[in-house]
Amino acid sequence: ERVKRRDPAIIKEFKELDGVSDEDLERFADPAYIARYYTEQNRETVKRIGFSIDWRREFHTTSLEPNFNRFVEWQYKKLREGGYVFRGTHPVVWCPNCESPTGDHDRLEGEGASPEEYILIKFRIGESYIPAATFRPETIFGVTNLWVNPEAEYVRAKVDEEEWIVSVEAAEKLKDQLRRVEVNQRLQGRDLVGATCTDPVAGKPLIILPAWFVDPESGSGVVYSVPAHAPLDWVALRDLKAKPELAEKYGVEKSEFEKIEPIGIIHLEGHGEYPAVEIVEELKVKDQWDPKCEEATKTIYRKEYHTGILKSNCGQYSGMKVQEVKDRIVRDFKEAKIADSMFDLTQRVVCRCTTLCKVKILQDQWFLRYSDQKWKQRTKLLLSRAKVYPESARQWFLDVIDWYRDWPCARKTGLGTPIPWSPEWIIETLSDSTVYMAFYTINKEIRRHSLTPKQLTDEVFDYIFLGEGILEDVASRAGIEKEVLENMRLEFLYWYPVDLRVSAKELLPNHLTFYLFQHAAIFREEHWPRAIGVNGMLMIEGEKMSKSKGNIVSLRRAIEEHSADIVRVALLMGGDGMDDPDWRNENLKDITNRLESFMNTAQDIIRMGGDGAFGHLEEWLTSRIHDRIVKVTEHLENLKTRAAAENIIYEIPNDLRWYLRRRGEPNSKVLMRLLETWVRLMAPFAPHISEEVWELLGKKGFVSTAQWPRPEDFEKSLRAELIEESVQKMIEDIKNILRATGKTPSRIILYTAPRWKWRATLRILENRVKGSTQEEIMKDLASDPEFKNIMSEAKKFVQTFTKEATQVTPEYAEKILEAGVVDEYSTLKEAIPFLSKEFKAEVEVYRSDDPSKHDPAGRAYHAKPYRPAIYIE
Question: What are the backbone angles phi and psi of residue 50, rounded to the nearest 5°?
Fold first, then answer.
């Protein structure tokens, strides 16, 4: 539509962002051509980034694919059989230009917005009513006045059998909501300021005052004021009292509103009589135009809804919880004819054709019955059995399932599948893209055997997806070979249920939730999805991508500028869970350097000769490889791609650098094992460079199809890891001493803890895990013959270390206990050449209980397990 009329914005977008040629643009007037064009473009892009896709299963989810249309027809017949599709009268988001409901995927702005019901409290004004719109009818007991926008235009109109005063925009909206509206008179908002109306509940007179926050395009264009519980109402009243001339220029004297005071009607724990007043002061809201008004409103409304209780001045509703009373009040007020309702949008919604959308109540429209409680419960059962990544998204799904009402599932224009029993309606894009993954499983066979839509009968789909019917009979009636139909059933059973479905968080409230609803409705429980993942939305240099800002980066362009592997790693490292990944140029440079370093390191290891000895450091490196495999695997299984990538891109190189720094003659066999593991871990992140390294290693086949590394192939050594950790800490301690003293060392002497301190440490940690007191620990040690002769010395150590042990986590304590007594002395003796090189000084190592040790400053006494004492000359 926009291309047909040569809309400059869309033409510019196609040309500048997507590089569409003038020749192709001419053909974009045909929606089917656009679908084919982008299918081809995106197919090439996903090939270039290295996705593994079985293209034999490819299809269009539009009328370009008649076989898929048949599948959707079957899908909707099953939904209708279950009572989940019905024809009714409901409010929808409507595009006047397209003359169709506008789903989320059909919008330029306003994704997620849906019709919201405003309750209209009808205040009597002469012989007319002035309906004030609200989402919180329970607050009527605290009303002090009405607000209108003095600069807006209003009408006096006959609405059905009553005369109402509403904004011009509201009158037009009511016409689309099955109301008879006849405008009799146009008014300016200023004409209403100063007038008196009557509170329909308490019967008291109320003045109408000017407020500029009142939006004539929202609700009825009239708002009733509850300054005790609505921050905007309090701020608007405060504005008038501070600047009475704002009202006086409309003929309202200061005395008319100066006497208005808030009326508290809701008890809210942790707040005083007037919660709205408190939060306005707390947030330092300046005036009714201050953006902080919205924050204040959301905070108070949320708190009062969840924990508020109506006070004694609320009549028959006193003592009731706010969240439980609304429906009853609405019912009672409507029965008493003091309230009505209308539907509206709470945010701007613009159709893809650039038309501003509105709410329209449609008759004889087709809906999905998402309001059905049994369907909701079945969908929740599905969700309870599935894994959700991140787990925090589970409650969001549950809230959305509870929140959903009936959904308009068809429109009059666009691409899509006609409703089989009502072909003048086309199933809209969010409603036909819910279970198509089942069609993937069989499309390969459909293509291979050139099956036609006529052969894909409902009976055929029932057999394939539900196991209903007898194979020979179904195949015969459909004109399909028995073996072909059987293979299609086997393909479905092999691939289903879906192991994991991932999409962006903005699609959680629609596409992903519909996916759950419809699988629960159509498929057997054993074929329900096993896991569902939700990810964030990509940002560019800390800002949301926006066409208006011109910061859109397409995947194709990113690959062309940076290479597929760099783009993959950047995206996978951008964020975990529902975090919004941030595309930053500085990160791209770092990733580029890291991948280059990976290749250079791989080449160095492959060229490296010499076996070297297999000692403590090789035990340590082997143990680190074990841990990296465990961590990366665990992170990937939980869709924590950033955490997994950090281990591969940063931590493995750190381990390798430490090993090479510590080991004079590295063991090339161990390093080759590390490299073979590293490249397999790297492959999902940077497949192209990984395949190059795999080939350099002389491996056959592809690394992408090689077996995933197994941690059990690398022995875990807690002792080696704890010792190397202590060496690293000791080096830091020495550096800190040198910085503090300003010394240039000529000799460094290290003293390792005596055996009894190791035994004592283990006993203390063992008792800590059990929860023993210091006295109980001392009694336990005193009963051990090894400690009897040194109890005075041991007592001081135990007192000190018992305090320190409280800072040791139970997990770390378990590691130390599992490692047991460690020969720290031999390890440090072995490290003397390394330490001498590090500090350019002579290094000596003694056991602290060695009578021949050189210890002029008495440092040896302070030696502890994993924390040698240090003396520097």
Answer: 95, 20
How large is the average pLDDT for residues 225-230?
96
Tell me which amino acid residue 213 is: F
Tens digits of residue pLDDT in 141-191:
999 999 999 999 999 999 999 999 999 999 999 999 999 999 999 999 999
* Amino acid, single-letter form, for residue 18: D
| pLDDT at residue 846 greater than cutoff 90 | yes
Helices 393-403 & 513-522 angle (0-180, nearest 10): 70
Question: 678 in helix, strand or coil?
Answer: helix
Q: Is residue 183 part of a domain?
A: yes
CA atoms within 13 A on the CB side of 765: 22
CA-based nearest residue to 325, from 91, 141, 198, 117: 141
- What confidence tens digit (pLDDT) does each residue in 315-364 have? 999 999 999 999 999 999 999 999 999 999 999 999 988 899 999 998 88
- Tell me how many degrees the CA angle 119-120-125 measures, rounded to the nearest 5: 165
Burial class (CB in 10 A: 0-12, 13-18, 19+), 549: exposed
| 33 vs 147, more confident | 147
Q: Are residues 696 and 655 in the same domain?
A: yes
Query: Residues 688-718, buried b or exposed e (16+ Cβ, 10 A)?
Result: bbbbebbebeeeeeebeebeebebeebebbb
Residue 359 lies in a domain: no
Contacts 24+ apart (CB under 8 A), 830-835: 830/615, 830/616, 831/662, 831/727, 833/664, 834/661, 834/662, 834/664, 835/731, 835/748
Residues 6+ apart with CB under 8 A from 163: 127, 128, 129, 156, 157, 184
| Domain assignment of residue 201, yes or no | yes
pTM, two decimal places: 0.80
Cβ-contact 532, 388 below 8 angstroms: yes
Look at the chain and count its residues.
873
Which two structure tokens, joined as six digits, stand for 450?
A: 């050139």
**DSSP readout, 312-361?**
TTSGGGTT-BHHHHHHHHHHHHHHTTSEEEEEE-SS--EETTSPBPEEEE
Domain that holds residue 205: 116-344
Helix, coil or strand: residue 413: coil
Tokens representing residue 868 in the block:
């040698």
In this prediction, residue 609 has a pLDDT band, given cuts at 50, 70 and 90, of confident
Strand segments (E) across 153-225: 153-159, 162-167, 181-188, 196-198, 205-210, 222-225
What does the block give as tokens for 78? 């099953």
Domain count, the chain: 4
246 and 325 together in one domain: yes
Task: Identify the three-state secondary structure at position 62.
Answer: coil
Q: What is the DSSP string of 651-672?
A: IHHHHHHHHHHH-SS--HHHHH
> Measured between alpha carbons, how far is 313 from 497 in angstroms, rounded to an integer?
56
